[in-house]
Amino acid sequence: MFETSACLAPLEEAVDRTKILIVDDDDDQSSALSYRLNKYGFATLTADTVERGVRQSRDKSPDLILLDVRLPDGSGLDLCRILADDPHTWSIPIIIVSGMESQSVVRNARTAGARFFLKKPYDPNALLVLIENALREEF
């Protein structure tokens, strides 16, 4: 189990109103995650479809994307591929946060361009560690 204070100390340097786009069609999940991330100082944007996720990514240039696999108009993996092929969005780190955890889904997520995969339900502190790691990576 992660200790919250140990996770948050390094995040303070990286946060500085870092924009995180949450792409999830579950409004309750999006709202709860957005609230939690706002408490830690992150600015959040939300989208509930692949189309809106692409638009928000291009228009708002988030620093990181948290992405569900199942979306009403397609797969989050499709969104990953679209963003990976776009010269304006290819470098945005993506963390897949999904209830689907088969080896093929995880492998496809990595192939599509996701940096990390986290299975729902998840430990919020584990997500913070992944966010920190993704924001510190340089590509």
Question: Can you characterise this structure?
Answer:
The chain is an alpha/beta fold and 139 residues long. It has a single domain (1-8, 47-139), classed as Rossmann fold (3-Layer(aba) Sandwich). 49% of the residues lie in helices and 19% in strands. It is built from six helices and seven strands. The strands form two sheets. It has a five-stranded parallel beta sheet, with helices on both faces. Helix 2 links the parallel strand 1 and strand 2. Helix 1 (4-15) runs parallel beside helix 6 (124-136) and helix 3 packs parallel to helix 4. The longest helix is centred in the N-terminal third of the chain and has 13 residues, at 27-39. The radius of gyration is 14 Å and the shape is globular.
Radius of gyration: 14 Å
The main β sheet shows up as:
5 strands, parallel
In CATH terms, the superfamily is Response regulator
- Tally of discrete structural domains: 1
Number of strands: 7
CATH domain fold name? Rossmann fold
Helix content: 40-55%
First-to-last CA distance: 29 Å
Give me the secondary-structure category.
alpha/beta
Uncertain runs: none
Determine and state the CATH class: Alpha Beta
CATH architecture: 3-Layer(aba) Sandwich
Average pLDDT works out at: 88
Shape: globular
Helix and strand pattern: HEHEHEEEHEHEH
**Count of helical segments?**
6
Neighbour order of strands in the largest sheet: 2-1-3-6-7
Strand content: 15-25%
